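Write out this protein's structure.
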Amino acid sequence: MSEVFTKSMARNIYYGGSVFFILLFLALTFDTMGTLPKQDNRAAITPQVALGKKVWEENDCIGCHTLLGEGAYFAPELGNVYKRFGNSTEAIKAFIKSRPVNGVPGRRSMPQFNLSDEELEALAQFLKYSSEINTQNWPPNIQG
């Protein structure tokens, strides 16, 4: 390389790279904006689903669980728990109710939150709603 790297060469690389990445950004933005409306097939949020979200937040479920990839990795992913429990809100409610009062000594386990029947139903409906969001096959397996 006997050639010297000049200011004009550096400027051309800078401007050329900038134009390339701006065009790439615009192309990806237009592609995303065209794809998003096609995949939005969620049901409307009902007052019961909203209450379930409130119960989820008040009991800090995300402090242990992930929901659609967000949250802690201490306990299982709950984005597909409705499918994992056989498409049954009753099974979800029964599982939450069956937790021991003080947990299992020496093991990490979900505590008993002593939720009312209304809160249990709302939480189950929220988890059902979450499982119906088109996540493009996330999580990749049924176990989360």
